[in-house]
Amino acid sequence: MLDAICTYDKTHPKIYSIFEFKLLPETEIDKLRYSLLCPVCKQKAYFRRASKDGKQACFGSRYHEKDCEEFNPSASKSEEEKQLAEVEQIILEQDSLLIDFSKPVISRKKSSQTEPAEEFEAQKERHTVQERYLTKAVQSSKSNKAKPQSAGLDEENNLPEVSKQGLAKLLTSLLRGSSLASSDLWIYTSEKHKWRAKNLFVNIKDAQPTENNAPRMYWGTISHADKTLNWLNPAEDRSVGLPVSKYREQLLSRFDIDEPTDVEGAGFILFGKCVFSKDKKRKYIYLWGNDLQYFYLSKV
Asked: 134: domain range?
């Protein structure tokens, strides 16, 4: 289990994610661990620390009800937890991560089993460019071996390994409560641009215009779309909108969207800029370069 209810304060029970609970002081863990419950069936739960043989810290229960989703997790949930654990492992053990914007997203429309040739070629070129970025990032780290760098290299020659992940996995980890958005991990968005994760990933409810319209990686969930599917409205903040008309047809095709209800509840992540409306009552998130490689949508 990745979450547990703590009833130590019976008046105000609190839900802990495993990632925040394991970072509590030992005395606090020992105090709270006897008051843990499964978040679904509310049966007695336990906390297990990370073990020397590589097992990660986790919550669990031996008292799950037979129909409890935590006892019989779906295949999709198991896959999400696997992806979350993978990203957390990178945060804990590595210094850098390269976002692979080239990772293809294939439409599930029955009428089109493959993407158009020009789109395939464009994705292949982006993939080649990303490989160059990854290689140069690693080489740059090695060439600066003796010098402590702003990227977080230490003086003991512990060089960062640059992992590569696509937007889908990063979005899943963010939605499932990973520490990515608050970490100091260096994120490469290109050969020349790197950011601390905590300065790059912004939940849509916290979106604000930046100096010089600098881009950020915005993420959240979709409440609904307008009838023409030209606007997506985030669930986290009614004052924020995602105008998609300039790349609407590509978006609908790539993510197999036929009607507004298809995007309700969907998770999303995009690299873009936040600007105020003329009256400054609303904020708009514009996709960087209107390039769909910087946008990922995960439908319910």
From this structure: 76-181
